[in-house]
Every structure is written in C-alpha cells, then in structure tokens.
Amino acid sequence: MPEPRIACSTVSLRGVDAVASYQSAYRDAFGGEALFELNYEWEIDSPEQVPGLRDAVVSVHAPCPRCANFPNLGSRDPAVLRASFEDIRRSAETAAAFGAGLVVLHPGYTLDVAVPVDSSRRLAVLSRHAAEAARYIWSQGGRICTPGYCETAEYRQRREEATARIAEAARLCAGEGVQLAVENLNPRVTYLFQLPAELVRVAHAVPQLGLCVDLGHLWISSLVHGFDFLHGLRDVLSTGRVVSAHVHDNGSQLGTRVSEHVVDAPPAGSRFADDHFAIGRGGVPIAAAVHQMKRAGVGTLVVETLDPPLESVRRLARMLGR
C-alpha cells in the first residue's frame, strides 16, 4: 500500500516569502520537495505568480483564493447558495491550475446568511445567531453546543439539505477534474457535520465525494458528544473514502463531573478550543490516529498547525516510520 504523502497547509505560512523559506528548510531537513495545501486565506489563483508551487500543491481549502465568505451549503438563501457554488467552482479551478486533485470544504452551517472568512466578523455573525439559540449552548467559550444538538430537528433538516447540495458541488468539482472532500467541523452551535456518523452517511449518499478528517475537530467533538475518538476515526475510515486528513494537536479536555445528573454545563475544568497546535502540544492521540490512517490507505496527511510547521512534519514522518 502506498505511503501517505505529507503536506503542509499554508495557514501558518503567510505569503509567498514564507512559503519559499519553508521550502528551503524542508529541503535541508528531508532532501526533497515540500508539498502544500493552499488554505482559505491564500490569495493567488495562478501558479505563474509562484513558479515554485507548480505541481507542489496537493489540495486547496475552499474558498481559494480567499474571498469574503465561506461556502455555506446549509443556507436557504438563493443568493448565498449561488455565491457558495461559485466560490467552490473557483476553488476547483485553482486546484486544477496548481496541479492539485482535491478541494477541501467546510460543508455548511444552520444559517441562511453568509459566514465570513475573517475571524472577527465571523464571530460577530455567530454571536448574533447564538443569542437566538442560547438553549443549545453548552459552553459560552467558543459557543460549544450541547451534546444533543445534532439531534435537533433544525440541525437534522439543514444537514439533509446540505447533503443534497454537496452532491451538486461534488459534480461541479468533477467537471473541473478535481475531487471534493468534505471536512468534519467543530461542535459549535450552527456548525454542521460534527459527528463521525454524519461523515459516514454523506459518503454513502454522494458516490463522487471524498472525506477529509480533521483530527483536532474530531477530538473536540469526541469530548462534547461523548464518543471514543479512535473508534469514531475508525468508523469514518471504514467508508474507504477518506482521501486526506488535517493533522494538528489540541489542548481541549473534559473536566471531572461531580454528578452524572448535571448536564446543563460541562464539568468544571473543561476546556474547548480549536487550537491548531503543533503535534505534541496537546492531548490528541495522533500517533495512534496516524497508524490507523496509514493502514486504511489515506493518501495525504496535511499538517495544519498555526505553530511553525517543520517540527510537526518531522514528528509526523517519524510516526510513519520514515
């Protein structure tokens, strides 16, 4: 079985100069050429502007190049949906231009409005909605949802609507010669596709679709929703559709519950944050997860840390036995 490729997200590499510096450091460390995922803040859509990236890109994260909003396939607003499909199409064009075969997508939200890429504007939008959905907030920090949130009628209906639109988006990407891969999201109020079972379901519903497992997101979801992290990962891998993974560590933890009957708030000492730490800085069992993904034949492992990425790449390479 082919070894997984290791790539680095440009989320920690702000601009062309930072990418070039990383490429040089990677050559010194490994003696080969670095691979990349262009993240949703990447602003260049033509490889002619960065010749060193031609054929070094394995995937792009929609929207790519950067635009104002994330695609939102959970929306019921026709204008938001039109813009979402156009941004996915442009992302597929960018992937094809750079020689990448994959577009990674945050699939959507239980919101009709556009969800901004800019973090401060995004938090403002989510805060306005969270005020309307306060009964579903388990932890105010990060607006973490209650453990039963994914079973609410509104969430389930939006998820089914988004699934139908994901099928359309997958066909759109295939028309550009690239594959769409849906990523699991954090357990926040308004965020869809938080559970392993939801990834399994959408994979069965959309034959053209690939999956991108985000280990940090999966870790937080396992704490909130009460499933075993490695068992959940195994369930998703069993679909045979996981083509990529975002690998980063996370310091979230579930505190000690004084009473099993207290469910209106997390146990004292709990912490939930989408840290995107370097490998080894948090509590995610990354080595065990990497072993599972290697055995399942996952093609690409993308280091998606906000910390300097090279040491995480080294650690990941050692986990793969290189």
Could you give the count of β-strands? 12
Order of helices and strands: EHEEEHEEHEEHEHEHHEHEH
Q: Class, according to the CATH hierarchy?
A: Alpha Beta
Low-confidence stretches: none
Helix and strand content put the structural class at alpha/beta
Distance between the termini: 15 Å
The helicity comes to 25-40%
Provide the CATH architecture.
Alpha-Beta Barrel
> Based on CA inertia axes, which overall geometry fits?
globular
Quickly count the domains. Answer: 1
According to CATH, the homologous superfamily is Divalent-metal-dependent TIM barrel enzymes
| Spatial order of strands in the largest sheet | 1-2-3-5-9-10-11-12
Q: What portion of the residues fall into strands of 2 or more residues?
A: 5-15%
Radius of gyration: 19 Å
SSE diagram, text form:
Blueprint: E1 5-9, H1 16-30, E2 36-38, E3 57-61, E4 69-70, H2 78-97, E5 102-105, E6 115-116, H3 119-132, E7 137-139, E8 144-145, H4 153-175, E9 179-183, H5 196-205, E10 210-214, H6 215-225, H7 229-237, E11 242-247, H8 286-296, E12 300-303, H9 310-319
Parallel strand pairs: 1-2, 1-12, 2-3, 3-5, 5-9, 9-10, 10-11, 11-12
Antiparallel strand pairs: 4-6, 7-8
Protein traits:
322 residues, alpha/beta, TIM Barrel, eight-stranded parallel β-barrel, two-stranded antiparallel ribbon, 12 strands, 38% helix, globular
